[in-house]
Amino acid sequence: MNEKELARIKMENKTETYGDVLICPWCHEKNEDCWELDDDGEEVDCDSCGEKIVYSVHRSVSYTGHFPDVKLNRLLKKNEK
């Protein structure tokens, strides 16, 4: 089987699922405890149907910067004048 045939089979059978929780590509049951899985992307058994699932974890990080309260108060007082 070549890569093109494998890609076609994956698309037809929806063998990949994405979301906030791990969804079994076989039975489509949600694994709500997926936060307990390792970040390594190992193979696990589906708790519902028992089939093998290979998973990967995708994380995102965002940051917010703000003035400390003391500096913010100074800026507000400056703008009042």
Explain what you see.
The protein has 81 residues and is of the alpha+beta class. The protein has one domain (3-80). It has 2 helices and 4 strands; from the N terminus they run αββββα. The strands form 2 sheets. A two-stranded antiparallel sheet has the order 1-2. A hairpin with a 6-residue loop joins β3 (43-45) and β4. It is elongated and about 75 Å long. The termini are far apart. The model has no long low-confidence stretch (mean pLDDT 79).
Layout of helices and strands:
Layout: H1 3-13, E1 22-23, E2 30-31, E3 43-45, E4 52-54, H2 69-80
Antiparallel strand pairs: 1-2, 3-4
Comma- or semicolon-separated keywords:
81 residues, alpha+beta, two-stranded antiparallel ribbon, 2 helices, 28% helix, elongated
Q: Over all CA atoms, what is the radius of gyration?
A: 23 Å
Distinct helical segment count? 2
Helix content: 25-40%
Q: How would a textbook summarize the main sheet? A: 2 strands, antiparallel
Uncertain segments: none
**SSE string, helices as H and strands as E:** HEEEEH
Shape: elongated
Mean pLDDT: 79
- Compute the separation of the termini in Å: 75 Å
Based on DSSP secondary structure assignment, what is the total number of beta strands?
4
Tally of distinct domains: 1
What proportion strand? 5-15%
Q: Structural class of the helix and strand makeup?
A: alpha+beta
Strand order of the largest sheet: 1-2
Give a short summary of the structure.
The protein is 28% helix and 12% strand.
